[in-house]
């Protein structure tokens, strides 16, 4: 079936199937528990795929595109590329846990005595992915390439959140290992973690040992007869209870009978603006677009002494507070990521239906509140870092018809991640956020320039110091100085009020007070600068 036909056919799916297409089998088939956070442990093999070159391609389009048609073209390039990879993983029985920007994470959950067979299966899947999709030449001259990492062993799954919104996380050493293996892999390479190498049938692989990193680079597999692997593939399918049973679909999850309880459970894992579009039957392919958003990335590093269950409760407490504060300011907590030392929370202001003119100011003020809360209330917290950027990004569906996710991708997404490393322990923002917030300059401190990986020109950076009062009485300077070459326009009524009060003060010797009231960005500072200039011309302070 052609892609367009499949997309149209999706409109005929029941709501449960449309929700399931946005979520992994790990959530669709799980047995809910009474308490939050939920923590479960299983054995499995993890596959991580990173698409390199897409951020650079985005940057080229952002500089040269002249219409929405050009932007739509870029969305299709990436969506169709990722779609092929996702479908290949599904054909091999993998469960797509998430598609985060240009990174895909898949899991095969099995018993411990089945790990070696499944590692062989996933290794074969990885080699085929590199062979078929390892390099994609775009007409714009920017190649898309793949870095693949594998790990295997015990994996913990935790669900955090509340009755309205929940998030699935996979945590543990082997999750860290797949991320490391993925980073160690160069373009068109596959790297296995050391534990994965110890658990596999080593005689079947041609490898290069990376002693310095305790990892293994996979070169090829020793399969002389294709029928040998077909037999192995059929054997592995017995280990995967949710593998597709029909040739018409890639996932059993899409063929479940209508279930109101399941529908309510799945809805908790999807953002509210996306649920609205599903409820009205909007086709998924019409949701993708370029739009300007403000992103907040919260990074929490924990002390290594924190044990896992306690760590889950810390993440639960942080997620609840962050979600509440962000939503109050008009944003949404989009994703939670785990990394070796802690976790990250990606929040977005400006999704469809949430756009506000003062989102940069809300993002800064929300971030400062989160920063203080995490330091003061979360035990075992070693470091809190928050970064904020504003700019155009790709917002929309990425993946295949059977499994896709709503995500954000672009240079500003890369920048917000690099800022966390460059400016730890601070609430930092880029120059665009600083300017568009329209907040007083004394609430910020300019930060020193730093080199950031794959960011050629990050621009000026600022630390947000929180909302402060600037006492002006007895000072000779103002927040904003009047530029004599740029006179103030359309403020005659306000200036006339000042002149009348000034005359009353000088001639009648009576004290006068004027209150100018207006929202953020209405020009109060510019008005005071103009008044200051008028008074100084007449010799008054």
UniProtKB/TrEMBL annotation:
Keyword annotations from UniProtKB, A to Z: ATP-binding, Lyase, Nucleotide-binding
GO biological process per UniProt: cyclic nucleotide biosynthetic process; intracellular signal transduction
All residue ranges annotated as the Guanylate cyclase domain in the record: 45-182, 384-420
Cellular component GO terms held in the UniProt record: cytoplasm
Pfam families: Guanylate_cyc
GO molecular function, one term: adenylate cyclase activity
InterPro entries, sorted: A/G_cyclase, Nucleotide_cyclase
The protein's name: Guanylate cyclase domain-containing protein
Species of origin: Molossus molossus
């Amino acid at each position: 079936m052609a892609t367009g036909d499949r997309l149209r056919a999706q409109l005929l799916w029941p709501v449960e199937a449309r929700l399931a297409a946005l979520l992994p089998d790990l959530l669709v088939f799980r047995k809910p528990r009474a308490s939050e956070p939920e923590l479960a442990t299983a054995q499995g093999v993890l596959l991580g795929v990173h698409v390199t070159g897409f951020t650079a391609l985005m940057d080229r389009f952002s500089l040269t595109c002249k219409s929405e048609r050009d932007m739509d073209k870029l969305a299709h390039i990436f969506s169709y590329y990722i779609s092929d990879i996702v479908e290949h993983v599904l054909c091999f029985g993998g469960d797509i846990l998430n598609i985060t920007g240009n990174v895909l994470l898949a899991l095969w959950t099995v018993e411990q005595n089945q790990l070696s067979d499944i590692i062989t299966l996933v290794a074969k899947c990885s080699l085929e992915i590199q062979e078929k999709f390892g390099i994609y030449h775009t007409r714009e001259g920017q190649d898309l390439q793949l870095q693949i990492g594998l790990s295997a062993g015990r994996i913990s799954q935790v669900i955090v959140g509340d009755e309205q919104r929940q998030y699935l996380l996979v945590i543990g050493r082997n999750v860290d290992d797949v991320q490391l293996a993925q980073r160690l892999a160069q373009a068109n390479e596959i790297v296995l973690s050391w534990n994965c190498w110890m658990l596999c049938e080593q005689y079947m692989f041609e490898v290069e040992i990376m002693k310095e990193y305790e990892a293994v680079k996979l070169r090829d597999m020793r399969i002389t007869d294709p029928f040998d692997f077909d037999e192995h593939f059929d054997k592995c399918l017995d280990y995967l209870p949710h593998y597709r049973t029909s040739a018409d679909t890639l996932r059993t999850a899409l063929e479940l009978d209508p279930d109101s309880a399941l529908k309510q459970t799945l809805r908790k894992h999807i953002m509210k603006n996306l649920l609205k579009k599903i409820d009205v039957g909007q086709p998924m392919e019409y949701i993708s677009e370029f739009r300007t958003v403000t992103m907040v990335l919260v990074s929490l590093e924990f002390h290594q002494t924190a044990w896992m269950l306690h760590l889950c409760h810390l993440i639960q407490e942080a997620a609840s507070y962050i979600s509440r504060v962000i939503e109050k300011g008009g944003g949404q907590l989009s994703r939670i990521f785990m990394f070796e030392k802690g976790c990250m929370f990606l929040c977005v202001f400006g999704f469809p239906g949430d756009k506000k003119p003062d989102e940069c100011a809300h993002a800064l003020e929300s971030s400062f509140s989160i920063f203080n809360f995490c330091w003061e209330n979360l035990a075992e917290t070693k470091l809190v870092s928050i970064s904020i950027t504003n700019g155009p990004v790709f917002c929309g569906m990425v993946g295949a018809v059977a499994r896709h996710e709503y995500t954000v991708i672009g240079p500003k997404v890369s920048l917000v991640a690099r800022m966390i490393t460059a400016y730890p322990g601070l609430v930092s923002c880029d120059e665009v956020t600083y300017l568009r917030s329209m907040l007083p300059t004394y609430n910020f401190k300019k930060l020193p320039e730093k080199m950031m990986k794959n960011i050629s020109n990050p621009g000026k950076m600022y630390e947000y110091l929180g909302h402060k009062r600037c006492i002006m009485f007895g000072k000779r300077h103002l927040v904003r100085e009047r530029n004599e070459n740029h006179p103030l326009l359309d403020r005659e009524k306000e200036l006339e009020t000042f002149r009348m009060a000034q005359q009353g003060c000088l001639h009648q010797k009576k004290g006068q007070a004027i209150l100018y009231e207006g929202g953020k960005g209405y020009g109060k500072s510019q008005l005071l600068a103009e008044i200051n200039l008028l008074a100084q011309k007449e010799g008054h302070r």
